[in-house]
């Protein structure tokens, strides 16, 4: 089965505290939607040092997947908090995707995240839409 045949969502979450039951809301939810033309990775919640591994795992799996296109969309509309560690991880994931001949596009970043990118200069070279 190729990515082209898969249209379901993959969802991963990070519990608030280690050892906490899965009944609580995760700090970060990652959804990967494989469409026929490109993968869309949608983040909801807080992107910080405690949840970076979820973004890394998601974009690593997208880079390894056999997708027909060379674009990967990172939908940031649901981000409620992001620190500089989160921005640096986005930058590192973009580099990983570039090594796999794919381009990361940041989509619908909230105003506070766009401001953080502008202030810090981190991830500002990544395409924003």
UniProtKB/TrEMBL annotation:
Annotated STAS domain residues: 28-129
Gene3D superfamilies found in the cross-reference section: STAS domain (3.30.750.24)
Pfam families named among the record's database cross-references: STAS_2
Cross-referenced InterPro entries: MlaB-like_STAS, STAS_dom, STAS_dom_sf
Protein name as catalogued: STAS domain-containing protein
